[in-house]
Amino acid sequence: MSTPAPSPDRIDWSQLWYPGPTRVFTDEEMARAGTDRPTRTFLMITAISIAPAAQALLQQAPDGEVPRLTGLLVAAIFAAYRAGMWLWWRPSRRRLMVLTLIYMGVFFTFALGLRWRMSPGAAREWMLTTFGILCSLSCLGFWFLSFFRAQQIEARLTEQDERARTRAVAGQLATAQIQPHFLFNSLASLQHWVDTRDDRAGPMLASLTGYLRATLPLFERSLLPLCDEVEAVRRYLEVMQARLGARLQFSVELPPDRAAALLPPGVLLTLVENAVEHGVSPRLSGGQVRVQARAEDDGATTVQVVDDGPGLPADDPDGTRIAHGRVGLANTRARLAQAFGERARLTLVNAPEGGCVATLYLPVPPAPSTVLTSTP
User: Which residue windows are transmembrane per the record (predicted)?
Assistant: First the structure.
């Protein structure tokens, strides 16, 4: 569990004796933020900032000490780079304090070594001062790096959270497509049958209750197993069959090994609703709707919704214009793209024998599952 940063409205006096970013990032947060290395721009700006200080130190070096100072600068820069990368991967005040203590220890060890190996004089004092400046600049750089990296990670996590909330809201708006006219018409039919004591009222109420039980929980998830979506589809078709009678015939086929395939909730239901509304309801003789899933060679899952209605217009054989014109189909494609990117597909074509075929291609292989869904 991460530790939140203190409020910016108060002074954090602990920075005086324990400096560094106060937020502790978890492994999950670091994985979300990414493990990218510093950009070339950041490294170039750092190098340009170091160059004047290195040049000033070289100009102040006593005669004969330039080679030694050059070697010391190269070693200090390399050590600071390695230490800075260690801090970059997990910026925290604990790591910053560890590096600070290490550099303090190295400085005092170096100072003792100088007093032991070099005789007193200007050269020793210059060397000690120079090394102290290098250690101080390194610690200052670590302090800046830790805060910069921590703020970068926080900004990235905040951006991801905002995107997730936006996707969640969009998903809820898109999935909340239990058609009002479907519910109102179903309730009106049910009320009429109850008033006339029609025997169809009981089965109709059971089917409608099952439909609501199957669909309402769907809106709480971003992805769900295909078997759960199929249960909502089955209940919807039962309700419509109770309303349309013999005018609607349907079948649902879901192989057990496809039951755990994942898809955004309401996607398949939208396709079935369109098949009934545009393929069956307009015809006095009614029609048939078939829902069938199958496995692909690449491990993906294909789900088809087939009706024997009038099909797509002759001037729109691939359903492009219809898909963009109908809010449900447009939302379906948008939500597939949100969940799977360009790997998921929704196609609409006319069947050779008549009617429309809507095909969902779900690229994520299903996890092992023992869930079985029977067909009517």
Answer: 41-58, 70-89, 96-114, 126-148
